[in-house]
Amino acid sequence: METIVHNPSELGRLASQTRSKLGLRQSDLHAHTKLATRFIGEVERGKDTAQIGKVMDMLESLGLELIIRSKPDKAKVNPHQLGFSKVRFWSSGDRLPVNRVIARVLADPTKEDLLILKECFGMGRVLSTWKQLKERHEVAKSVIPVTNSLLRKLTVT
After folding, report:
1. What are the helix (H) ranges across 62-122?
2. pLDDT digits over 102-111, tens only?
3. What is the residue-averaged pLDDT of the chain?
């Protein structure tokens, strides 16, 4: 299995799912690693700050390893080639920064277009872009509940 993790929440979810698939409880992992069950729970819930050595010990105990690799060069894309259902882009030849493409789709989302974003760029990148847009107040307040609802549904699937 290979999974690209973009943030602590995704790492925690992966660790929790792997532990569950192995039939282990947090207390079982504690017995094997001597890490506090509280720490294990915090990591599984996506704690933003944690000692990397302890996290790596936890992952190793679950049969996971941390691999660092360069991101593929997808800094700019032609959104017209991605097959979005709504036209949100001005020129068919535009190559736009990925975050701008994601932002435009999130500003007027359809489930189909969010699925394209998820497939092309990963849910972690979509969610982090959404978080940044909301924090910088770069999205209309009326769009927030709709987009939040669609993103929640996609995150579960």
Report:
1. 98-107, 111-121
2. 988 998 889 9
3. 87
Q: Which domains are delineated in the chain? A: 8-61 (1.10.260.40), 76-156 (no CATH)
Q: Which of 75, 140, 71, 135 is nearest to 102 (CA)?
A: 75
Quickly tell me which residue has 């996971």 as its tokens: 64
Q: Which long-range contacts (CB under 8 A, 24 or more apart) does 58-67 make?
A: 58/15, 58/29, 58/33, 59/15, 61/29, 61/32, 61/33, 62/15, 62/18, 62/19, 62/22, 62/24, 62/29, 63/18, 63/22, 64/14, 64/15, 64/18
One-letter amino acid of 117:
L
Residue pointed to by tokens 């979509």: 126
pTM given for the model: 0.50
Distance between CA atoms of residues 131 and 118, nearest Å: 15
Sign of the four-CA dihedral 52, 135, 127, 71 = negative
